[in-house]
Amino acid sequence: MRKSIAWAVVILLVVVGLNGCGGGGGGSSSSGSTPTSKNLSTAAITVDGNTTDWNGVDSMLSDVQGDKLLSVSGGDLKAIYLAKNGNKLFVRFDVWTDTINQSNHYRIWFDNNKNNETDGDVGDRQIDVYYSVGSWHVAAQSMQEPYSGDINVNGVASASGSTLEASVDLDLLGISNSFILDGVIRDQNWNNVDWSDSSVVVNNQ
Questions:
Q1: What SS3 state is found at 152?
Q2: I need a surface site. Which of 38, 70, 140, 147 has the fewest CB within 10 A?
């Protein structure tokens, strides 16, 4: 009887441990609780690093000050915003106190099937905003494995002070009418610097 009980406990611990594992490269910072739900705002945004045209658009994701994992400038995430206008999707990253760091990667994930896992999911997407050869760039990928190359989304980006903006074409990116959004800042060696406090369900209607 004791052996049976012991084995039952072991099996239970293994199951709980497996359910708590997140993906390695994808958005996996959430604790497993049900994310809050927010609607995707419509706004006419100009990608120039100026935030005045974001007035009236609430942040999708936020993060408390001073909780970054590594001492990297421009790595203390404050908030991530999303908005759309016609076929354009706009994303904005804000950091605390520092200016945006050209060595960092500013990244978001779109969990299109809302299973809290993006690694290996063909339908899921990610956007990485990074600086190279004198300008900001936007890379977008499907989360399928093996990696099949970037998706051309006609991305543009611009930074000013503590704000980084980018835009992509919605039809080229391919996101669902409702998805889980997660975000992170990574350093130049792809180490995680600061996650958003939690993920959010975005209604894209």
A1: coil
A2: 147
For residue 86 the two structure tokens come to: 């016609």
Tokens of 190: 């792809």
How far apart CA 149 and CA 151 sit, in angstroms, is 7
Q: What is the residue extent of each domain of the chain?
A: 43-203
Q: Write out pLDDT tens, residues 29-78.
A: 444 567 899 999 999 999 999 999 999 999 999 999 999 999 999 999 99
> Contact at 8 Å (CB) between 51 and 162?
no
For 44, counting Cβ atoms within 10 Å of its Cβ (0-12 exposed, 13-18 middle, 19+ buried), the class is exposed
